[in-house]
Amino acid sequence: MLKTDTLWEATTKYKRTYPFLSDHVTADVVIIGGGFTGIAASYYLQKQGVRTVVLEQHTIGWGASGRNGGMMNTGYKLSASALINRWGVDEAKRLDQYALDSIQAVERIASEHQIDCSIRKSGHVALSKNKKKAKDFERERELILKHFNREVEVLTDDALQQEVNSDFYQVGFLDPKSYGFHPLNYVRGLAEVTADLGAEIYEQTKAMDIKKSGQFFIVSSEKGKVTAKELIFATDGYSNKIEPELHKGVLPISSFLVATEKLDEQLLSTLIPNNRMLFDTINLTNYFRQTPDSRIIFGGSGIGYPAKKKYFNELYSKLTTVFPELSGVSIDYQWGGLIGATIDKFPVIGRTTQGAYYSVGYTGHGASQSTLHGQLLAQCILREERINKTFENTPLKSIPLYNQKKFLVSSANLYFRLLDKLN
Ligand SMILES: Cc1cc2nc3c(=O)[nH]c(=O)nc-3n(C[C@H](O)[C@H](O)[C@H](O)COP(=O)(O)OP(=O)(O)OC[C@H]3O[C@@H](n4cnc5c(N)ncnc54)[C@H](O)[C@@H]3O)c2cc1C
Asked: Whose CA is nearest to atom 15 of ligand 1?
């Protein structure tokens, strides 16, 4: 029977629950949002003996962190050439290394704490059905080799068929350094580790009001309060009017996924022979992969929100266009979530006028970076030297007509859909 919870929720091994806040508690740092960013910030702070309280309005990993495709891809939403154009070669190289380090950070944490999250070095292939894209891919390959000293490959014909057995795509771009994982197992597993380090985690606890009293933040929920010297917003695509600066700067973009029934291993290894993470390079990206329990998940971005039956039908139709062999296959799970995007398509770490810290705007690329951003937030609070300051030096720009977000998002969807059709 079709289920509307996520495949990750249905298959998670980490089921610890946390109480809702019904008291007045104190901490050194209060963190709003229990996804990768919030839990990682809490983890790195607790390791330094800093007392943290995490408030999550639903359950740990309920937001994008427990809804994503589980692809820890190298790089950013911006291409290597865009990074170089914007920051110059040296900084772009540091940013590329930072993205690789973020994947390594997740792997290290998972291994150190034995978090069972099916983490695997899979590599990714970016795809296009437009042969002309081969030129862009080739330019990107040259830049990555020359400036970042990394080997990537442009794939066509047989080489492409060996990665994705479909006539739909004409050209691909293989980066072997990406990983796949079970995102909810990771974030829930890390939450357990963090709670064991002394963090107080509260679920079903929505931060509803924030006041500053002298040097302290007082965050109120329906039945409780937290007083703390520092506050972190880790709310990304779920940021709302409780912090107007984030509400103005983060564009929530919807993304949906379907998960097939379990498939025969033979069929899976025919369709996606090397078990890579796969996505196309159109504006309203489709992304797909095998799952640890032998299904294919197929996602698509920017269609509208909340979910409607027709969005899932569209995904099914696209899935079976890419893989006609899957016509008639059953869908066991379907779900959606919100990606936090910035105008610059680049994540931002900043401080609000009141002095609260935030890290938002991964623009669909936060599965691994959010862990290192949690570390950067911790380093900001501890006044330590940061491993990278670029995200702090990038201002969070207000979205024009932010009050009309719904209208903006649907107009942008129509516009990008048209562009994708023309390409
Ligand atoms: C469908 C989908 C697919 C994706 N696929 C990929 C992928 O394959 N690879 C990739 O790199 N990235 C992907 N992303 C993006 C990635 O998941 C995010 O960048 C990342 O999870 C952001 O983590 P976060 O902790 O900052 O935010 P989130 O995980 O969204 O967490 C924010 C949390 O804040 C909570 N919250 C908000 N307001 C309050 C409040 N007032 N009080 C208490 N709690 C509050 C929310 O409930 C939520 O749990 C995808 C996103 C989606 C939605």
From this structure: 364
Q: How confident is the model over 237-262, as a mean pLDDT?
A: 93
CA 359 to ligand 1: nearest atom = 26
pLDDT, tens digit (0-9, with 9 covering 90-100), for 16-71: 999 999 999 999 999 999 999 999 999 999 999 999 999 999 999 999 999 999 99
Cβ atoms of residues 322 and 166 within 8 Å: yes
Domain that residue 47 falls in: 7-407
* Ligand 1 site, CB within 6 A: 32-38, 55-58, 62-65, 67-71, 206-207, 234-238, 240, 242, 255, 257, 299, 337-339, 362, 364-367, 370
* AA letter at 26: T
Task: Kindly give the pairing relationship between strand 357-360 and strand 286-290.
Answer: unpaired
Q: How far is the CA of 32 from the centre of ligand 1 (A)?
A: 12
- Above 80 in pLDDT, residue 218? yes
Residue recorded with tokens 């910030």:
41
- 216 CA → ligand 1 middle, Å: 27
415 is a domain residue: no
Residue 230 above 70 pLDDT? yes
Cβ-based neighbour number of residue 91 at 10 Å: 15
String of DSSP letters for 276-330: -EEEE-SSS-EEEEE-TTS-EEEEEE-S-SS--HHHHHHHHHHHHHH-GGGTTPP
Q: Domain for residue 352, yes or no?
A: yes
Give residue 414 CA to ligand 1 midpoint distance, Å: 24
Mean pLDDT of 192-215: 98
End-to-end CA distance of the chain: 37
Q: Domain total for the chain?
A: 1
Residue 420 lies in a domain: no
Which residue has a Cα nearest atom 32 of ligand 1? 235
C-alpha span between 20 and 133 (Å, rounded): 51
Q: Which amino acid is at 337?
A: G
| Cα–Cα dist 236/214, whole Å | 27
Q: What are phi and psi of 143, to 5 degrees?
A: -65, -40
pLDDT at 409 over 70: no
Asked if residue 254 belongs to a domain, the reply is: yes
Confidence band, pLDDT 50/70/90 cuts, at residue 307: confident
Of the candidates 176, 65, 68, the one whose C-alpha atom is nearest the C-alpha of residue 126 is 176
Q: What backbone torsions phi and psi does residue 23 show, to the nearest 5 degrees?
A: -140, 180
CATH of residue 30's domain is: 3.50.50.60
pLDDT, the chain, mean: 94
